[in-house]
Amino acid sequence: MFSYRHAFHAGNHADVLKHTVLIATLDHLLEKEAALTVVDTHAGAGLYRLDGDYAGTSGEAADGVLRLVSERPPAEPDPVPLADALARYLAVVRDFNPKGGARIYPGSPFIVQHLLPNCVAPVIIAATLGIAGAIMAEAALSFLGLGVQPPTPSWGSMIADARDLLQLRTAPWTSVFPGLAIGAAVLGFNLLGDALRDALDPRFLGGRDRAPAHAQLV
Question: Is the dihedral of CA 121, 90, 95, 211 positive or negative?
């Protein structure tokens, strides 16, 4: 029975083509202001050693990524410039090999993991702004009588019940406090989004190791 193990074929010409297309596709999708979901069906280890026994047995990487890396050192100008998609692909591979060369080759899961952290901040900010917008919308609808109905409490309905001129004069806090609560909630979610962005955005982390310590190299 034939048993397929991708470690024998990591970095070959098929991987170069597949991952160049994957990177170009993700870069294009990340330019859009919309949520992005990636379903990973990869069953392998996802991170491979090109100087190990498996890759050395087949030697397929020599005609793939190793050929591109060896012919185009990052510190020297290219005699014939690569296409933008291939240059981007090599840049991603080199991110996993900070000491140069191509000793470690990332599979699809780690390429996606490498590229997607850049969209964490916009998604978090959009989510927190969405919550703040939902609070404002619910309060406005309740103020107009189109939201939740009594006896369910709502800040908007509290302000609507206290808009009588006499009540504003005698008990202004009945409308002031719900308004302050709405403002505080909206401001709080906006500040939470900023804090999470600062904590999760790779640009604020001083550089993130693209190959996690728990990754299994094969």
Answer: positive
Which residue carries 């699809």 as its tokens? 108
Is the model's pLDDT at 43 over the cut of 80? Answer: no
pLDDT confidence of residue 119: 66
CA–CA distance, 22 with 29 (Å, rounded to integer) = 11
Q: Model pTM?
A: 0.54
The H or E element that residue 185 is part of is helix 173-200
Instruction: Find residue 47's DSSP bridge partners.
Output: 106
Provide the strand spans (E) within the chain.
47-49, 104-106
pLDDT digits over 52-93, tens only? 887 778 888 888 888 888 755 555 555 566 788 888 999 999
Burial of 43 (0-12, 13-18, 19+ CB in 10 A): exposed
SS3 for 149?
coil
The token duo for 121 is 């901040």
Percent of the chain scoring above 90 in pLDDT: 12
- Which of 185 and 202 is assigned the larger pLDDT? 185
Whole-angstrom CA distances from 208 to 92, 96, 121, 200, 211 are 13, 11, 15, 10, 9
Question: Does 207 score more than 50 pLDDT?
Answer: no
Q: How open is the CA angle 52-40-15, to the nearest 5 degrees?
A: 40
**Residue 93 corresponds to which tokens in the numbers above?**
């591979």
Nearest CA to 109 among 205, 6, 207, 38? 38
**Length of the chain (residues):** 218
